[in-house]
Amino acid sequence: MALIDFHDMDELKNRNEELVWAAVEALLAADPKLCRCRDCILDTAALALNRLAPRYQVYSFHDNHPGDDASIEGQVREAVAAASAQVAKRPHHF
Question: pTM of the predicted model, to two decimals?
Answer without folding.
Answer: 0.84
